[in-house]
Amino acid sequence: MTAKASDMPASDKRGGIVPVGVWVLDQERSQKLAPCSHTLWVIKDDGKELTWVSIETGEDDIHKITSWTGQYGGGPSTVTGSGFVASLRAHGPDEMETYGEIPEMGPFSERCKVDPSGKSMTCNGQVETRDGVLTWLEVFNLHSPSPHLPLLVKP
C-alpha cells in the first residue's frame, strides 16, 4: 500500500519549513514565466538545510531537471542543471525566501509560504531584467511523502 500525503502524521511533515515529499504544481492557479508542468521533490528540510530536485516539462515536451542544496542563512549555492546561484533564508516557521542571480536575466527573489496544514505552498517570485521586472506565482500541492529513505547509521 502506498502512503499518501494526507496519511502522513503531523510529526513527519515539518522538520524545517517545507514538508519533505513530492509537490506538484497546480497549473490552473499558477502563473509561470513559461507554461510547464512542475514536480518538486523536497528531499530534506531540517530547518538548517534544504535539498530539492525539480522536474519541469514545457509545452515542447522537453524535461528540465535541476537540483539544489542550500543552508538557511548560509552562503550562495549553485542550482545544478541551471546555473542559478541562490541563497536561502527563513522568515518564520512557515515562510522562506530564495534569492540570487538567474544567468542571462538578473537578480531574483522568491518567497514561499506553506499553509498551516502543510499540504499547500505558494511561491511569489520576481526577476529584475534589463527590460523590467518579471513576476511569477507558483502554487504547489503536496502529492505524496518522499519515496526516499536516507541510510540510517547504526551505532
Question: Could you characterize the architecture of this molecule?
Answer:
This protein is an all-beta fold. The chain has a single domain (17-144), classed as Calycin beta-barrel core domain (Lipocalin, Beta Barrel). It is built from one helix and ten strands. It has one helix spanning 10-13; strands spanning 21-25, 36-45, 49-58, 63-71, 77-78, 85-90, 95-102, 106-114, 120-129, 132-144. It has a ten-stranded antiparallel β-sheet with strand order 4-3-2-1-10-9-8-7-6-5, with no helix packed on it. The longest helix has 4 residues, at 10-13. The protein is globular, with a radius of gyration of 16 Å. The two termini are 31 Å apart. Residues 1-13 have low confidence and may be disordered.
* Number of discrete helical segments: 1
Radius of gyration: 16 Å
**Main sheet: strand order:** 4-3-2-1-10-9-8-7-6-5
Q: Report the count of strand segments.
A: 10
List the domain count as a whole number.
1
**Low-pLDDT sequence parts:** 1-13
The shape, in one word, is: globular
Order of helices and strands: HEEEEEEEEEE
Q: What is the CATH class designation? A: Mainly Beta
Q: Mean pLDDT score, rounded?
A: 90
Q: What is the name of the CATH superfamily?
A: Calycin beta-barrel core domain
> Given the helix and strand composition, which structural class is it?
mainly beta
CATH fold-level assignment: Lipocalin
Please state the second-level CATH architecture: Beta Barrel
The percentage of residues in β strands lies in over 45%
Q: Could you give the distance between the termini?
A: 31 Å
Helical proportion?
under 10%
Major sheet details = 10 strands, antiparallel
